[in-house]
Specification:
This protein has two helices and no strands. With 65 residues, it is an all-alpha fold.
């Protein structure tokens, strides 16, 4: 397997999405445990997922050059 940016793109995407999903799950759990309505907790989790995924992809592109 070649050690190029193209060959590692899928791996980095999987890692970033897994971390974003973990953050979103934790955010949803925190909001739900504080007594927030289910729709608001799911909305907060979705927003956390989108934010974490976007930040992760942006940081990876910045660091990789």
């Amino acid at each position: 397997m070649a050690n190029t940016d193209m060959s590692l793109r899928g791996l980095w995407a999987a890692i970033i999405m897994t971390v974003a999903l973990t953050i979103a799950t934790a955010t949803t759990g925190i909001f739900w445990s504080t007594g927030t309505q289910v729709s608001a907790a799911l909305g907060a989790g979705g927003a956390a997922f989108i934010g974490a995924a976007t930040l992760g992809i942006t940081v990876r592109r910045f660091v990789a050059g």
